[in-house]
Amino acid sequence: MSGNPISACRYCAAPLHFSVVDLGAQPFSNSYPRPHEIDRERRYPLHVRLCTNCLLAQTDFDALPEAIFSAEYAYFSSYSATWVAHARDYAAAMIARYGLGKDSMVVEVASNDGYLLQHFLSSSVPCLGVEPTQGTASVAMAKGVPTEIAFFGEKTARNLVARGYAADLMAANNVLAHVPDIADFVRGFTVLLKREGVATFEFPHLLELFRRHAFDTIYHEHYFYLSLHAVDRIFLKCGLRIFDIERLSTHGGSLRAFACRSAAAHREMPSVADIRREEREAGLACASGYGGLELSVANIKSGIRSFLDAALSRGKSVAAIGAAAKGSTFLNTCDLTTEDIAFVADVNSRKQGRVMPGSHIPIVAPEELRARRPDYVLILPWNLKTEIMDQLADIRRWGGHFVAAIPQLEVIS
Fold first, then answer.
1. Which partner from 148, 165, 229, 269 sits 20 to 30 angstroms from 298, CA to CA?
2. Can you name the residues that pair with 19 across neighbouring β-strands?
3. What is the pLDDT at residue 77?
């Protein structure tokens, strides 16, 4: 068994009763089986509930981190040009804002394949990555990025402090939702930060999930679905204080929260109050504001099913692009198979030759998409729609069309 059902909030231990959305039983979305391994594939509940005590939205199944973030973990950040550019811009902005240089220390938690820290290295800013997956960490180290292979938390932070590390800047991009013991994880930042050090946390904003009907951002490695309201309370309890926030377009709408030790001198910026007010006005300060996602899922399922039935009845061919985790959730929630989608093209060579979890749609190189010329190409990572459409602009040569299904069905000529 790769996890266990839970009935109490991972943070405050209050009972979990309130259902936000139930997506049924699904496999781990970043575990891409080889064709001969599909008989061994397992499915686990994918159901988001709300703790009505602390308003922390979370899955009610505790997938073991070791089962998800294994040596074969297939997500490599550097395969997205948009994400690498985002990291480069972040590094430049932080170096300028905080005057980072050769005497500074930058630590990234969940540093993946070095996609971000490589930009600090090229500016001669010392850095350290902390990354639990051997495969991605090995790629980072091959780039010259020093990497500690470990899960991050208070114990790891104290170990690093004992070895002489102290951080001027810590970065945690899209990892806050991935750690089942969120309090232990946050306390690690309090331990490792210098007295006036800054930690930035990027995470998909729960408010945008509701606005964009983005149920496909729900998967087992995301234990939490985060509002500022919930994150604020957790940070304060663990010794951190949020003093600034930037809105990001990444992952369909994210926040970058700037945090420091509670007693640090950083002044709170108006952006923090703005997001708090926006969440209150949207109803996220009380449990009654967390309904409606089930209906959104039903409407999107109906829309893609109607589109596919019509296209296939006319003899049209349909493929997909982007074997992302959100694509796995989308395909499985909508009950799509090889009868609907012929294949999924992806630039990640580690995924090619495997199949999508659950739906078992084969994953191929982008060259095969061009060779087979499908009439429609469904963009699974819809948050990268512009990047993908630019990369595949030659689809117009054979009269093909792009399709996006979230936040609503869109056929793009």
1. 229
2. 49
3. 55
Q: What angle do CA 123, 129, 131 make, to 5 degrees?
A: 150
Specify the DSSP class assigned to residue 149.
Answer: -
54 alpha carbon, distance to own chain's centre: 22
Q: Are 222 and 283 in contact (CB under 8 A)?
A: no
Report the pLDDT value the prediction gives residue 71, as an integer from 0 to 100.
46
DSSP 21-81: EEEEEE--TT----GGGGGG---EEEEEEE-TTT--EEESEEE-HHHHSSTT----GGG-H
Residues in a beta bridge with 170: 107, 199
Ranges of beta strands (E only) in 126-191 are: 127-130, 147-148, 167-173
**In the chain, where the domains are located:** 151-290, 293-412
pTM of the full structure: 0.90
Between CA 320 and CA 399 the distance in angstroms is 16
Neighbours of 98 (CB within 10 A): 15
At 68 the pLDDT is 62
- Which CATH class, in words, describes the domain spanning 151-290? alpha beta
- Band (70; pLDDT cuts 50, 70, 90): low
CA-based nearest residue to 135, from 310, 351, 285:
351
The answer to whether residues 131 and 151 touch, using CB atoms and an 8 Å cutoff, is no
Q: d(Cα 124, Cα 105) in Å, to the nearest integer? A: 10
